[in-house]
Amino acid sequence: MSKSEIISVKIGAEAGQGVKSAGLMLAKLAIRSGYHIYNQIEYPSLIKGGHNVLQVNISKDEVTAPRRVNDILIALNQDTVNKHFSEFSADSALIFESDSKIDTSKVPPNVALLGIPLSKIAKESGNSDLLINTVALGAVTAVLGGNLVILNELIAEEFGNKGEEIVKANALVAEQGFKHITENYKKFIKGFLVPSDSVSNFVPHMAVDGNESVALGAIASGLQFAAIYPMSPISNILAVLAENQEKFGYIYKQPEDELSAINMAIGASYAGVRAMTATSGGGFSLMSEGFGLAGMTETPLVIIEGMRPGPATGLPTWSDQGDLQMILNAHQGDFPRIVLAAGDAKEAFELTMQAFNLADKYQTPIVLIIDKNICENTQSYPLLDFSGYKIDRGKFSTQIIKEYQRYELTPDGISQRTIPGSGNFFIANSDEHDQVGYSNEDAETRTRMMEKRMTKLKVCKEQDMKKPKLYGPESADITILSWGSNKGTMLQALKGLDDVNYVHINWMSPFPTEALEEMLSGAKFILNIECNYTGQMARLIRENTKIKISESLLRYDGRQFYPEEIIDAVNNIRSKK
Amino acid sequence: MTKIDDLKTPHFPSWCPGCGNLNIWSSFKNAAVQEGWDNGNSAIVAGIGCHGHIVNFMKMNSFEGLHGRALPVATGVKMVNHRLNVFVFTGDGDCFGEGGNHFIHACRRNHDLTVLIHDNTLYALTTGQTSPLSEHGFKTKSTPQGNPDEPFNPLALAIISGATFVARAYAGDMPKLTEIIVAANKHKGLSLIDILQPCVTFNKVCTHGYYRENTYYLEPDYDPTNKQKALDRAFEFGEKKIPLGIFYKSDKPSYEEQIPQIKDKPLVEMPLERASAVELFKKYT
């Protein structure tokens, strides 16, 4: 296979049939064999039943997005065939349950039909119907030409804590599934996942999703307190944090609601520790009250906002980019808010760590925006690196300070912070206040204090804000502008496009006005791509720059853009020109 | 040693002359002097309402939060620094209206906080509307025909929600209020003091005279460890029948005593270091 070739395996089943765990094992099998992966999971808001699918994309080159087509479809139920029969690639196969009455009549004739008695193998060899996903995993490993020894290692690691019996049963059914392919469908085996030449010079990789990378980034940054109310799609952040709290010595607390979450985190931060919360759009609506409280009291705080489609409950398990303008505008009055947006799990890791330093330095709330695709899709990266990270607490002291004033007016707007119990007196006051913190409604004081707080944003722009990133050629026929999880799709699309480049924006507030204007000064055609109805990034650009966007490609159906769709859009523009 | 002058700020209370908040303010300062509470060992979290102004009149480190949200801020403070005495000043509207959900959950978790309710049975800072603790039929600006809602019973609510120290005090009896504040702070767990605090401007029913006339202290042999009895007494209210004192007390471990991470010392006293998350990475390879 060529370096850029991607093999896409889609597994479909009812919720509860283990699609996610099978997909993750296949992903790990691939990275241990020296390949890159990108897993995309799609499911409805249900615990049992419904239709869950996971696509594992495997390549020798970096792979950053899902594909519209599948090379192998694994159907554990009829729904999978019905919903995905039109997505087969030219040289593809269907692995399905041969004993049930799965109707394959709609499947195109060129697709290899690899029927396997999945339930029979699961029951006879593993004593449990629950193991059909492992049988299928064994089978697909064989079709891909993968290594059964590596699969067995993964089974031992995955099920080790459930006991020897479970490990044995899984290993046995995986082997049976594997054998069923080698004995019955030998000619369909692809020599693809062979851990050969590439594996020895392949640096160790890890497969993480954004929820995991945010939690890991927070732990690496010295997180001390997190209060997070469960909400899709960020719930797994709290699961990772809750699991590791005793080991790393921080506290995770599940509060009664998001109002409490943000206020608890603010209380913890006021008392002197590094604190965070996380939520999705609905929870952030509740938090908007506390968001400004952190701004007014100048309390450092990291807020992770994982977007899903609104309004109201919306599409709880799908993705969207419709919260940008809310986050930029939430809360009454003006206060300095630093708003960052990650484009993938790795950026989410790095920006989480940076967010803690920015919060301490500017003593104000930092929002890191991610979205469902980042939260729950898994990508492989070289082991995440935090060796260069230095904790910077800014102007922070626990010593007694003479004539201490918490909100002292300074040229950069940042005052010395101390904590209760240090012996220093101050009031962290939600009312407008003087330099000590006493409530004060004097016009002059109010003016100076508003200016002091807002100065911090100017300083942040000068000292910390990063320019947007340019991918592809310096100059191009068409320039794509986007943000968030669209990044992966754009990078993948660029590989199939000539004379197109991509500008990726991470800083939303402060906004890189001058840098973006300069980067786009020579752009011939600007295509803005977003997952929301009104083009919220385009609005932000219009508000802050003189840039003229030529065209926008928007979607608000909860689904992720495929690279193929971007290529189509570019071709379409070219044909009109 | 805390001296009364140490607590003085450049701001003298702006409450109305005769306001019960003045008594609460003085009683708390007396308790602070008696117990040595200061900026090295204590913090105050206040909500929004007339009570919240107290942060300006007492030189003790404080956080004045949002309406209804004093409790979550205070629980955050206490979890990361359990060596601090954490006092929550809140009103009946603040705590039981906007903050009702936080109240029941803070009780349920038994955080080691001392919660002082400035209970004037109405909203005073917004110039006199009904509160969740207003009596049925009570006439205010928002209920000119008389309040159609029944009030909460704050003591009973606290007891059934899991608070482990539940008391009622009358602001006008400062020595006794001081004593109860001290006892509440010594208790490990969520301590609630419902302080009957006459609003001299907007409440013409619950006046100092009314409370002096109709309150009495629980008997010396009253057993506060009996939960059922405590609930019975919490429902006793009316002419000559308003009990004061400690209704309920239980020795359940506080929330903070149950967190292994802070068994040896508060989180805030631990060095902040970059954690070696590398060992967690293995799971993802």
Automatic annotation (TrEMBL), chain B:
<keyword id="KW-0408">Iron</keyword>
<protein>
    <submittedName>
        <fullName>2-oxoacid ferredoxin oxidoreductase</fullName>
    </submittedName>
</protein>
<dbReference type="GO" id="GO:0045333">
    <property type="term" value="P:cellular respiration"/>
</dbReference>
<dbReference type="InterPro" id="IPR011896">
    <property type="entry name" value="OFOB"/>
</dbReference>
<keyword id="KW-0786">Thiamine pyrophosphate</keyword>
<dbReference type="GO" id="GO:0016625">
    <property type="term" value="F:oxidoreductase activity, acting on the aldehyde or oxo group of donors, iron-sulfur protein as acceptor"/>
</dbReference>
<dbReference type="InterPro" id="IPR032686">
    <property type="entry name" value="PFO_beta_C"/>
</dbReference>
<feature type="domain" description="Thiamine pyrophosphate enzyme TPP-binding">
    <location>
        <begin position="48"/>
        <end position="195"/>
    </location>
</feature>
<keyword id="KW-0560">Oxidoreductase</keyword>
<dbReference type="InterPro" id="IPR051457">
    <property type="entry name" value="2-oxoacid:Fd_oxidoreductase"/>
</dbReference>
<keyword id="KW-0479">Metal-binding</keyword>
<dbReference type="Pfam" id="PF12367">
    <property type="entry name" value="PFO_beta_C"/>
</dbReference>
<dbReference type="Pfam" id="PF02775">
    <property type="entry name" value="TPP_enzyme_C"/>
</dbReference>
<keyword id="KW-0460">Magnesium</keyword>
<dbReference type="GO" id="GO:0046872">
    <property type="term" value="F:metal ion binding"/>
</dbReference>
<dbReference type="InterPro" id="IPR011766">
    <property type="entry name" value="TPP_enzyme_TPP-bd"/>
</dbReference>
<keyword id="KW-0411">Iron-sulfur</keyword>
<dbReference type="GO" id="GO:0030976">
    <property type="term" value="F:thiamine pyrophosphate binding"/>
</dbReference>
<dbReference type="InterPro" id="IPR029061">
    <property type="entry name" value="THDP-binding"/>
</dbReference>
<dbReference type="GO" id="GO:0051536">
    <property type="term" value="F:iron-sulfur cluster binding"/>
</dbReference>
<feature type="domain" description="Pyruvate ferredoxin oxidoreductase beta subunit C-terminal">
    <location>
        <begin position="199"/>
        <end position="263"/>
    </location>
</feature>
